[in-house]
Design goal:
By secondary structure, the protein is of the alpha/beta class. Helix content is 30%, strand content 17%. It is built from 6 helices and 7 strands. Strands 3-2-1-6-4-7-5 form a 7-stranded parallel sheet. Helix 1 runs parallel beside helix 5. The longest helix has 14 residues.
């Protein structure tokens, strides 16, 4: 990703601490800069249950801010593009989409969709061409992976050593032959 890259994940009224925890883990894995959300359902559910902490096993919430906001569009830099991600007629298939350097990616709630006023305000609307819909955390993972895959090459053995589980010390020692 370019050094001037900035990625925010915006969640429209999420309800599940489990999914928000999964979003936080994805944000950490793919180096998103922030996660914001609207609505009261998530905060109320998270207050009474601890599932988020079971799904954010890498502790991304310690380094990436998770912030409740009134409006996902307030306070954006002028050069931040608004990208809605949802199964919306007329949207661009994700494989055809070119990601901007600075973006807020908006995702609808697990049991709904993104409000029309956000779709109307968006610089682009994209969807994952799946049969059926994915859950919120899965959608964020796919979107962020697509952004990474289409960006500058980032792979190395050092990245593998930093990223893998502590119980994984396996190495490729021979060439695979078919």
């Amino acid at each position: 990703m370019p050094c001037d890259s900035f990625v925010t994940i915006g969640l429209v009224n999420p309800k599940s601490p489990t999914n928000v925890g999964g979003v936080m883990r994805a944000a950490g894995c793919y180096r998103a800069d922030a996660v914001t959300y609207t609505g009261k359902r998530y905060a109320l559910a998270a207050k009474h249950r601890g599932e988020q902490y079971n799904t954010d096993t890498k502790g991304a919430g310690l380094t990436i801010p998770l912030t409740g906001v009134e409006c996902l569009l307030e306070g954006l830099d002028a050069d931040t593009q608004v990208i809605c991600v949802d199964l919306v007629e007329g949207a661009i298939p994700l494989p055809e989409f070119q990601h901007p350097d600075k973006a807020i990616y908006l995702f609808g709630p697990e049991d709904g969709t993104i409000d029309q006023y956000l779709i109307d305000r968006a610089d682009a609307v994209v969807y994952m061409p799946t049969v059926g819909c994915m859950n919120l955390a899965s959608s964020v993972n796919v979107l962020l992976y697509d952004r990474l895959a289409k960006g500058e090459p980032t792979g190395s053995d050092e990245l593998i050593r930093q990223s893998r589980d502590t119980n994984n010390r396996v190495k490729v020692t021979t060439s695979a032959t078919l």
